[in-house]
Amino acid sequence: MNTTNNTKYTSYLDIAQKLSREFPDKTDNINPADIAAWCAECETDYIGDIESHREYIDFPIIVNNFQALLPCTLFKLLDVYYSPYSSGIDVQRVTYNNNGSYINFATNQKFATDNDGNDIIYIKYYGLAIDPLTGYPLIKKGHEQACEAFCTKKIFLSDFYSGKLNGNIWGDILQELNNQLQTAKTPFRHMSNQDILRMQKIRFNMIQKPYKIPIYQ
């Protein structure tokens, strides 16, 4: 995806370039893939802007030893099933346990296989927008400063723990991150009426319905 003329998203590479200009001595040995992972973590775990997320259906993930690693771009897991919706077969949901990083299955669970012979399971979820050409997460415009501040914290974290970084400077880094996160959590810049209705639907689905709450006593 060409993000140069994209009004909604930018690339993690733009953030990596800004950081390299600001901290050239610190970023020379940092893999750009780390910047991508930190930006994804910031978007998913700290900003949590529902409006910027997309719905993924029939997303295959590989199963090893009856567990499957969840995508780092995942915001909300909606469904886990054996056969894809697109197959025309009735969806066969499976029982699983989600520990936050992996979903685990019973040892008698059967799986589908991909073309390479790997066991796979399909999931439906809301998550970050992904560049289809690179597979890396896209950063919503308006979130760049928050992602930069989050990456800055990650870059200087080891210096703080080792005592190389002054406590006052570390406090400034944390305060800047907090300020930028608060600014990024105002999501209405890119929202149409359709987007607002979609966001309300996602939030409604995250609330457990009273009639589904089990009564034990």
Account of the protein in words:
The chain has 2 domains: 111 residues; 74 residues, no CATH class. α1 packs across α3, α1 packs across α4 and α3 packs across α4. The termini are far apart. By secondary structure, it is α+β, with helices and mostly antiparallel strands. A hairpin with a 5-residue loop joins β7 and β8. It is built from 6 helices and 9 strands. The strands form 2 sheets. Strands 2, 3, 4, 5, 6, 7 and 8 form a 7-stranded antiparallel β-sheet that branches. The C terminus is likely disordered. The radius of gyration is 20 Å and the shape is elongated.
Main traits of this protein?
217 residues; alpha+beta; 2 domains; 7-stranded antiparallel beta sheet; two-stranded antiparallel sheet; 6 helices; 20% strand; elongated; disordered C terminus
Largest β-sheet summary = 7 strands, antiparallel
Q: How do the helices and strands follow one another from N- to C-terminus?
A: EHHHEEEEEEEEHHH
Please give the number of β-strands.
9
* Poorly predicted spans: 211-217
Looking at the structure, what is the overall shape? elongated
What is the count of DSSP helices, taking H or I runs of 4+ residues? Answer: 6
Structural class by helix and strand composition: alpha+beta
Calculate the terminal CA-CA distance, rounded to whole Å.
54 Å
Mean pLDDT rating: 84
Q: What oligomeric state do the depicted chains represent?
A: single chain
What is the strand content?
15-25%
Rounded to an integer in angstroms, the radius of gyration calculated over CA atoms is: 20 Å
The number of domains: 2
Q: How much helix is in the residues?
A: 25-40%
